[in-house]
Amino acid sequence: MARVVLSLLVFFFKYSIVLASVKTHTFPLFDETVRSQFVITNGNINKGALQVTRDTANPTPEFSLKNQSGRILLDKSFRLWKISAERTTLASFNATFVLSIVNQTASGGEGLAFIIASSKNDPPDNSYGEYLGLFNQSTDGSYSSDVVAVEFDTRKSTGADDPDDNHVGINVNSIKSVTRASLSPHNVLLKNASDIFAWVQYDGKNLSVYVNAGNVSDASNALLSFAIDLSKNLPDNVYFGFSASTGNETELNCIRSWNLTVEDISDSSNKGTIIGLAVGVPLVVVLILGFLIFVFVRRVGYTHRKSQRLMERALTDSTGGPRKFRLKELTSATHNFDKKYKLGEGGFGSVYRGLLSNKTPVAVKRVSDNSHQGLQEFLAEITIISRLRHKNLVRILGWCHEDGELLLVYDLMPNGSLDKLIFKMDNKNEVLDWDRRYRIVSGVASALLYLHEECEQQVLHRDLKASNVMLDSEYNARLGDFGLARLIEHDKNSYTTTAVAGTPGYIAPECFHTGRATIESDVFSFGAVALEVACGRRPRMESQQIHLVDWVWGLYRENRLLDAADTRLAQKFDRDEMLCMLQLGLACSHPNSQERPTMRQVLQILGKDAPPPLLPLFKPAFVWPAPPSNMSEILSSSRDFSIQENQSSSE
Ligand SMILES: *[C@@H]1O[C@H](CO)[C@@H](O)[C@H](O)[C@H]1NC(C)=O
Ligand SMILES: *[C@@H]1O[C@H](CO)[C@@H](O)[C@H](O)[C@H]1NC(C)=O
Ligand SMILES: *[C@@H]1O[C@H](CO)[C@@H](O)[C@H](O)[C@H]1NC(C)=O
Prior knowledge:
Helix content is 26%, strand content 24%.
């Protein structure tokens, strides 16, 4: 009997997961009724198909079909991976589609690709020809392209080592495929105007591609299969769709039907499963009903009540602070959220440039409705930042909560975000000079000190990274995006959550054990930013295998720390300042949280009131749990550097 119950349980468990956790989009054909579900750039929906590059019928006679690139993406982001406790969870997905390519010139070109992209942005400029709307000469091969694609290539380009003019390939941030296969031995001819069935599958480990002539699915053998951890190559939220291009030879690149199924790994789906299990032991019906009721109650009741409470608090607390805007004002300020005015995409929404009626330029953050915790995060953000005043924090001007729209209005930062400035693709025209870099890092430090020690109620930033550091007109650092910040009392030292928030490379190692952010984990993130600014490299380096900290620490050991300096600075920097920032970056990246300096010490060092920290020659091993220590000692600003005394060599 027990065994029967157990196997039933296992069955229900599996069943409930399947029920609770996929998102499916089915397009048997494409017509006007689905147009609003797509973001279309240079393409069209016509004759029942997605025309990823345009056909002859539109839009104007003088429109040339040559050298075009287009993209059509589903206007919806999907959670591709998340980090919780100690592991990364990757969403699996299946995309099946029928494609059809029609030659418009004798030999046709260039090809079509299924794409997973970090944003809904247009294809890069000049991504026509061999670049398939994926890359251009400057973004090709750059890990910051954040594009993974499956190409259906109808032209042999020599630069990309193509086997022929009829092949598939898997592309990771480069038009040069990581693996490729000719379709000719499989009796599939791409540019034949006939229907070709393709299936792209990701199971969390391998990306596999199946292709068949005719529109039949056949899973017998994968043409391509490539082991890839997509969390290393793409951000956690991604968009799915297609891109294509023409060159001097042209073709019509069409998708005739498309099914997309993506595993739902958002937190609510997990909670749903667990609660579903606890409720529905004996009957599937009970289980499903329980889950549905849970979702319903949670959506309608719980969120509503809780958010209303928070909202009221935010409203009453904000006297003299940010003001409430009308939706009308903000839609007209941003020209109805025109794509042209979009500044970027954050963790839970897009940011637009706007001009208020009194001519004040502003940045408007539009919280997207498909981030399910939007409302709470929104309210938390207002409540927290409306109380903070510091010259290195982005000032909030107001908010709007109307018609289901959640909007935040900030001072516009004319110089954008730090990461854009440091990692700008076309870096030839302007390199951020050293004086500015030093001032920016000092500004970030001063903002963090304020948050940690000087403001009324201690605040952890929790998601400090270069893309959250904004720059005003004088290139002063302004910290933004406190979406993940949580108020904590001064006597409590951390805030517990179930999942580790933040961004890989900026997350302190102990967070994976404790699941909570602390003052020290903010210091760790600061270290990552300091190293990035000094080296002009991201925390996870190009090869993805080596961490920036390890690389810099290696150079420190070999007594050639200055080799870590950003080469684009062309040696134009103050040697002592550079050494100081690099050493500080390493000290803040110390694997053991207790050994990291406090922000007060960091500021003293940057202000040249204290010498740069000495470091052990080898990066110490991460020890967990950390050796016990006296809290008052850690928080006191008089603590001297104990890093050099406390060395424990590893490796
Ligand atoms: C993708 O398809 C395979 C084979 O049909 C299936 O086992 C897997 O569960 C599917 N994954 C998703 C997310 O639908
Ligand atoms: C999409 O799913 C439907 C229903 O399961 C199926 O009939 C159709 O062939 C699928 N289309 C593609 C392109 O996979
Ligand atoms: C590549 O695309 C980016 C973004 O559209 C653009 O800024 C850059 O100028 C392009 N580079 C080339 C060589 O066209």
